[in-house]
Amino acid sequence: MPHVLRCALQRRRPCEAPRRTTVLDVGCNKGYFSGIALNYLAPGFGNHLQLLYTEHIKSNKSDNPCGSCNDCQEPLPKHLPSLGQAQVDVYCYEPSTVLFSGLTTARDTVYGPPESPVQGKGTTVRFNLRNKAVSNRTGTDKFPTDSATEVGSLGEGAPVNVTTLDAELSEAGMPTYLDVLKIDAEGFDPTVMAGAYHLLRSHRVGLLTFEYHSEWNRSGGKLRLCLDYLEELGYSCYFDGPRLVKLSGCWHHELEIDRCSNVVCAVQGSAYDDALFKGSFIAQSHGVGVNGTTGEPVAATHNLLGGRRMRARE
């Protein structure tokens, strides 16, 4: 992870002063996205993807324990911080009872329950699990709760509890700020963001990443409308990758590609926003998106989030 992003994760606090960091994962599935973030935030544990994969193999609760993109085989990034955060809180939302059961077993073995967490070289990870779907309303809906695949979505299956991020983060004991919010809801990502209006409006999310593809037609979402919504709330967005492609303020109708992609956003003017801009194609093409120490391109989300596509609720 580039030095600039380590500082951004600590919200402009000195990098030598580790703090508490929060990751919220909507559509957690097997927990591999959270594992990628933890590789940077809690490096003392080792490769979190391999740790989770080992437990998923043992529990045999998933149709594809390695993940549809072979997440479990992803090596550790070359540039990891030597010192992790003092505490990392993960909030993982997964409505499938089958996958939730496998996650619980893996969590308890690798990290311990939140009330008695395991420590890895100075970092305490509290991995909180929520057996709920996330949308723009509270109540119940249908979901294939007995599915062990990565493509379940609301509207079919058995009854499941549904919540919003605004409702969840208003509960006592929940975090007041999310360093990273990931959404992978099989086409219902815009609906989840609609249910996080107050959270986003108050800039209580540092880095937001979501999946965009043709399945957005399930919720009637369009990328342009979603970007307008986020820009109005004060966020700048990019197509994610080794070189980020700026979307906010640079819209063209050909960007509505309907192909599996990731979008990453940050509060305008924040340390995250600065890190994303320095990792963008336009910055690097003008020679301003390089790390002053190493001379290497600063691809912020590529390094933070593993630089691979999210597919099918990984």
Automatic annotation (TrEMBL):
Residues 135-236 form the Methyltransferase FkbM domain. InterPro entries: FkbM_mtfrase, SAM-dependent_MTase, SAM-dependent_MTases_sf. It holds the Pfam family Methyltransf_21. Residues 136-155 are annotated as: Disordered. SUPFAM superfamilies: S-adenosyl-L-methionine-dependent methyltransferases. This is Methyltransferase FkbM domain-containing protein. It comes from Chlamydomonas incerta. The lineage of its organism: Eukaryota, Viridiplantae, Chlorophyta, core chlorophytes, Chlorophyceae.
